[in-house]
Amino acid sequence: MDYNRIVQEILNIGEELLKSGAEIFRVEDSLYRMCRSYGFVRSDVYASQINIQMTVETPEGEIITQIRYIEMTSPHYDKLDQLNNLSRYVCANTPKQAEIHERYEKIAKSKVLAFPLMVLAQIVSGTSFAIFFGGGRNDAIVAVFASAAMALTGYWIGKQEKNPMIYNLVLAFVTEMVILLAEKMGIAIHSDRIMIGIVMVLISTLGVINGLRDVVQRNFTSGVLEIMNSVLGALGIAFGIALAMKMLHGGGNAGGAVLNSNIFVQAVSVSVGSIGLAGIYQIRGKKVIYSGIGAFLTWTVYLIVRQFGGSYLFGMLLAAVFVGMQLGKNAKSLRKKLALEGAEQIFLEKSADRTDECCIVMENEGKLPIYASGDLEGLMGVTLEGIQQDLLSMGRKMMDLRLAIKDWQRYLEWDGTG
User: What is the DSSP track for 131-188?
Assistant: First the structure.
């Protein structure tokens, strides 16, 4: 086994995990687990926001060290989900280097959301949250144009500037300028609520949460860097808004965040806004709808708690517990599926080494053979496809009782030849 190539592929997965938005602890844990699955005597992994270092000792005593520099990261949760599944697959099956590379390349080439759809996602999210925070019809119209301006500016400046503070400062400044100009023209009614809603697209607490988790896991350096990165991004938003307000002398009608008075509108707007955020964070397929449904149900739990006199904190706690329970059920189902797939492959690989016998795996429900190992044709004179066709044909005949009895009589009269 070429351990250098194996280490390279493992590090490829770790690099892509980090670039796609995984927390430092998750990256290091995944790399450690994959290294252990290949029987390395020792493995040492260090990851930060810009660097991954890994040293392993092979069973033959060879020391291998590889380092990766991470130029930039951008949330891509669909790719992150696939990479997590690939990590589990590698741990369960220890595939050869070529298979890992093939699976990794397929994931790495995942496309990002098309630019027009990204603009639409930001408009949907920003406008929905503006309504959620009490914006009216005019405010929603202004939010559409302000969100579009932020998306277009972000597309342009994203190619020029990687610093999160400067990036957020420019976006917040442009967005607030659009809102304040609309206010001066008499279109925007609640400029503060519009900006509070749109800024939800920029603010991400994931950096702070991931940073705190890294600190708890004793990854102090990476945790503090993650938190500081989030703080700098938040300062950029604040400075951008303040600069626009200073230039246009606006924001005088600010009354703070006031949720929409209609609780049904609250639930629907937060659900639609979450669907927009799912697009921004590169979530794909049915998971986008699940994001909206999850947001709707979570906010409903919070509203029910508040309706019965519960505090804000208790409402948020129960809503978080509800989300955690749903995620736990999904994770358990996924682990079971991956474990079954791994068991099938291990069984076939082990049985394929035996030249004097062949093995067939059948599905539980229909008893139809789905996998075969060994020299099936050489030992039994049949192929897997032939057995499948014969069983399907026999199944159809068995539906007719007369044909079934006739075939059974022919079998009893058979002398074993021909």
Answer: HHTT--HHHHHHHHHHHHHHHHHHHHHTTT---HHHHHHHHHHHHHHHHHHHHHTT--
